[in-house]
Amino acid sequence: MGELLELRELTVSYRTSEGPLTAVRGVDLVVRSGEIVGVAGESGCGKSTLASTVLRLQPKDAAVTGEALVDGADVLTMGWGDLRAVRWAEASIVFQGALHSLNPVQRVFDQIAEPIRLHEPRVTTQELEQRVGQLLEQVGLPRARSRAYPHQLSGGQRQRVMIAMALACRPRLIVADEPTTALDVMVQAQILDLLQGLVRDLGLGMVLISHDLSVLADVCDRVVVMYAGRVVEVGPADELFADPLHPYARALSGAFPRIGDPAARYAPSGLGGDPPDPRWLPQGCSFAPRCPHAVDACRAEEPPLIDFGGGRAAACIRVEETR
Amino acid sequence: MSTADVPLSARQVTWRRRRLATRRGWGEFRRHRSGLVGLVVLTAFVLLALLAPLIADAEGLEASRATGGVLESPSGEFWLGTDERGRSIVTLLIWGSRISLLVGSLATLISMVIGTTMGLASGFFEGWPARVLFRITEWFLVIPFIPLAIVLASVLGRSLLNIVIVIGVTGWAGTALLIRSQTLSIKERPYLERAKVLGAGRWHQMTRHILPNVMPMVFANTTLTVALAILAETTLSFLGLGDPTRVSWGSMLENAFSVGAMTTGAWWYIVPPGVCVVLVVLSFTLVGQALEEIFNPRLRRR
Amino acid sequence: MSTTLAPAAAGTRPAAGPSYARYVGGKLIGALGSLAFVLVLNFFLFRVLPGDPARTLGRGRFRTEEQLEQFRAAYGLEQPLPQQFLTFLKNTLTGDLGVSLRYRVPVSDLILDRMWPTLLLVGTGTLLAAVIGIYLGVVAAWNRGRAADRLTTSTTLTLYSMPEWWLGLLLIATFAVGIGPLPGIFPTGGLHSVDVDPGWWPALVDTAWHLVLPVITISLVYLADYSLIMRSSLLDEIGEDYLQTARAKGLRDVEVRRRHAIRNALLPTTTLIALSIGFVVSGAITIETVFSIPGLGLLATEALSIPDYWVLQGTFLVTSAAVILANLAANLLYGLLDPRVRS
Fold first, then answer.
1. Residue among C214, B210, C239, C1 at smallest CA distance from A137
2. What is the pLDDT of chain B when averaged over all its residues?
3. Which of B4, B220, C233, C234 has a beta carbon 3.0–4.6 Å from C141's, enabling a disulfide?
4. What's the CA angle centered on A185, arms A180 and A190, to 5 degrees?
5. DSSP 3-state assignment of A230?
């Protein structure tokens, strides 16, 4: 099966009053249909910028280089008409913060129907009603909810509406940007189950972005860890969490306790310091200032992504020594 | 023991913080070009009004001592010509600024005091007292100010005090609504809950917590209110509701209108007073908008 | 398990429901409360008069003590205050607003007579100001920071700082009287010219011609206000996330603007515009004075000179009631358009 999404050397930078700010640096990513790829990292590491470039939604003053291929076609260079056709019908986004990402004065029905009407102008009202009803059922909401306004729904319900909306034009790729943030744990689990089920039943490809590793560990097939705009580790989800290679991934994984592991109870680890300001990145490895294993060679030059076989790679020159 | 070792008292900390905040605020204000322009023009007018006795001879206001001819056009002697009684327009303008600024400020003072108190009270208190206060605010919001001014003038006679009262009484409701919504949002904040738990009484909460946070908004709103008050005073004076013996820009225009200055082409009588009003109102508005932007970060994107 | 979709669900008009009825009820009660307040205020303002109210209010109209007594009885001026208030209420609600000292006709007749020019002026002026103002506000907001925005905003700020009647004076001097070589083309005042052909069409054209300058004056000043309001509302909406969602769905920029941003920004704008009707009504009074238009405003200012108390009381009542009604209409409209307000 072909690649649904392929990002090649994607770089996004903004112009600020203090100089250029590079939010995403040379990111490579591949997503195939039927698989869920997780993108992990702290806030500010460039995850959301990455998500928006899939549909070329980054701000007008952002400079983008590299390629973003959706089903083989480069979204970043295609004409407007083609881009608008791709938007929602081939790839869609489930945005963060459903309350603000939905139009507060429009009913749920109209918001879900809008992209359908746009991409399929000949659709009849009856068909629309049918499809919207089906979509709501697919995400576990009763059909009658289509008449509600966003503020009348709970957080979990709104998130389901966003997912139903993302499915409206039958895309093959969905990018879910922090879909479970601000939801409580039970609802989180339901939403994740829902997403997993949809990928399985509809053969979608999905990019799941989250700062919360517990979310990604559960659901993803592969995980990409980002730090300061770069990919620092990539690999199959279970292997990555059990045996992380990059010190940052290790810190992330270690920071969250595992039930049943007595050692974790007594030694939860954290990581001091803050992610670097993207305007003033340090020389060499951007993680070096916080890394417990950094040596001079680390600070000299930024380490490339080193392949460790079996689909695993990490951007660290000291993996063998520190494993 | 050096001064650096002495711990500062809570009061000193507060004052130091306030001084820093003021300095920061001023620094930000300087970056607003329009606000600065407004401030400069405003200061010029205030100086003009304060220094009136030194700049323009008060005798120039006496019709009986007027030296110019009737409605003379501008000349070397009378830079902006004369009015229908031979008085120099420039003198009238300078003295008129006093009334306009004074009445505007007094009226604003009244409306700000009432408005802030009502706003704080209706926002802070719960239950039916707050609802009643809110209702009263809504009632005063609908009263059109010119008809009320006309009624008051007919009952109490024409005077500047009446104008001040009318503007103050009809103007406070807008401020009250603004302060009320600010108060409501501040009430939700966690530190107020903590203060309550620590035993802060209602008066303490209002004056030590809510009021300082509302003050910046009040400050910005005051400036904008003065602009509207001056406009209102000019209008009411134009309609003849002010003191006929005092000169204000509005009364100058009233005279100009009644002697038909438009038809005789005496533009020097019509244009300058209006331009002065526009300049003063515009500068207050610009300053007020700049202040709003500083105090409400959400507005900065504009 | 699934409920069938009701046919009305496909509608895009937000249908009002029981929550709207409750909202309307609440607003109606509020409006009635405001009206009651205005009535009370009106009553007390005129009882503050120095001297014998009967003589002051009935001044110059009675020659005999008998007539004065009749007058007193009809308006209950000798009764204790609460009873006076009831008499006042009864009279007002049955349309008896007293008799004009100057014109010797019932005030209610006078008001009905002079209402139309004011309505015409305020109505046309507000409509024009709203349409043009909103358009300019959209242009300014969408081009924020660029030349179009700076030009529009500086012009509207200046217009906003102008007394509307001063602008009227300037326009009269320029276009009615003429400056230098330019002739005056518009009439300097009034609503009708004397030398107009008979027949309803010429009279209509004549009235319209007389209204051109006054309407332009009112529109210019209020469109400044509305454009600033719309610009501000739209800038609030432009930063919102749901516009990003709309763009992601494949909508063109223009469509995102029209269908989402502007439509949502219109909600607070329409309310603020309706709420400003109070100021437009006040503004109309001064415009009528400047242009000598025989409407309610001119009636009120003329009444000041006598003073014609009944007329003053009546016009104050009518103008306040008009503002209250306009606000009510605005609130009802807003409740219809914004579902969040109804809950």
1. C1
2. 84
3. C234
4. 65
5. strand
Tell me the average pLDDT across A86-95.
Answer: 92
For chains B and C, CB pairs below 8 A equal: 134
Does C101 contact chain B (CB < 8 Å)?
no
Mean pLDDT of the C122-140 span: 92
Is the Cβ pair B155, C45 closer than 8 Å? yes
User: Where does residue C264 rank: exposed (0-12), middle (13-18), buried (19+ CB within 10 A)?
Assistant: buried
Mutation target vs C (from B34, B138, B146; most C CBs, 10 A cutoff):
B146
Q: What is the pLDDT of residues C267-280, one digit of tens each?
A: 888 888 877 887 88
Contacts of B185 (CB under 8 A, 6+ apart): none
Strand order across the beta sheet in which A73-74 lies: A19-32, A3-16, A62-70, A73-74
Both tokens assigned to C156: 């509207």
Cβ atoms < 10 Å from Cβ of C236: 18
Q: What whole-number distance in Å separates Cα of residue C219 and Cα of residue C124?
A: 8
Chain A residue with CA closest to C265: the answer is: A105
As given in the structure block, the two tokens for residue B250 are: 């509005």
Contact B250, B235 (CB under 8 A): yes
Least confident of B47-51, B145-149, C9-13: C9-13
Please tell me which of the candidates C3, C246, C343 has its beta carbon nearest to residue A144. Answer: C3
Q: For the segment A200-236, what is each residue's pLDDT rounded down to a tens digit?
A: 998 899 999 988 887 888 899 999 999 888 899 999 9
Burial class (CB in 10 A: 0-12, 13-18, 19+), B156: middle
**Chain B interface, mutation test: which of C56, C166, C280, C290, most B Cβ atoms within 10 Å?**
C166
Closest chain B residue to the Cα of C315, Cα to Cα: B147
Averaged pLDDT, A21-35: 89
Inter-chain residue contact C319 with B257, CB threshold 8 Å: no
With contact defined as 3+ CB pairs under 8 Å, the chains touching C are A, B
Do chains A and C touch, with touching meaning 3 or more CB–CB pairs less than 8 Å apart? yes
Question: Comparing C-alpha atoms, which of B137, B149, B136, B139 is closest to residue B107?
Answer: B149
Is the CB of B144 inside 8 Å of chain C's CB atoms? Answer: yes
Q: What is the ipTM of this complex?
A: 0.86
Which residues are CB-neighbours of B217 under 8 A, at least 6 positions away?
Answer: B178, B179, B182, B295, B296
Q: Contact, A77 vs A160, CB < 8 A?
A: no
Q: What is the pLDDT of residue C13?
A: 41
pLDDT at position C49 is: 62
pLDDT band of C1, cuts 50, 70, 90: very low
Beta strands A62-70 and A3-16 are antiparallel
pLDDT in tens, A301-316: 888 888 888 888 998 8
Q: What is the pLDDT of residue B32?
A: 80
Contacts of C307 in chain B (CB under 8 A): 154
Q: Which of C20, C240, C249 has the most A C-beta neighbours within 10 Å, making it the best mutation to test the interface with A?
A: C249
Q: Is residue C5's pLDDT more than 60?
A: no
Show which subunits contact A, needing at least 3 CB pairs below 8 angstroms: C
Q: Which two tokens stand for residue C235?
A: 């800038």
pTM: 0.83
Give B68's pLDDT tier (boundaries 50, 70, 90).
low
In whole angstroms, what is the distance from residue B35 CA to residue B180 CA? 26
Least confident of A69-83, B97-111, B287-301, C298-312: B287-301
Average pLDDT, chain C: 81
Report the pLDDT value the prediction gives residue A19, as an integer from 0 to 100: 78
B248 touches chain C (CB under 8 A): no
Give the alpha-carbon dihedral of C218, C221, C225, C226, to 10 degrees.
50
Type of residue at B150:
I
**B161 in reach of chain C (CB within 8 A):** no
